[in-house]
User: What shape does this take?
Amino acid sequence: MKKLTKKDIINLLPHREPMLLIDELYDIKKLHSATALVNVKKDSFFVQGHFPGQPVMPGVLIVESFGQAAAALTADGLDKATYEDKLVFLMGVEKARFRNPVIPECKLILKIEAIRSHGRVWKYKGEAFVDNKKMADAIWSATIVDKK
Assistant: This one.
């Protein structure tokens, strides 16, 4: 199956460091599903302040990681003219559950799936794991808009 490296993802998404959270996208089924890797490191930008001495990846950044993985999956599957000079914006989070804290020096694995699309609006679901233990899950929607 196809695999996208961080360099490939940079070519698809407008996100840049430190906000580009996903490191790889693999097991890609075009416009349907993929698995993403987020290397949560002890020098990740959020560690210093969330929380000193007991760092935890903020839940909102797990949701952002889901969104970035979904945007990369979608951009990779569409004709370049469809997403060129466009941005993907999160529209809503229907459900997000955080089951266990994600702490630095782990590999956060995101399994995402596109569950519906209607024009420029897409709906996705995802689950996040560390060492096969479920850390979080969410359902969210996003839209593709013109850059302004």
Notes: The beta strands are 2-4, 24-29, 33-40, 86-98, 106-118, 121-130, 133-146.
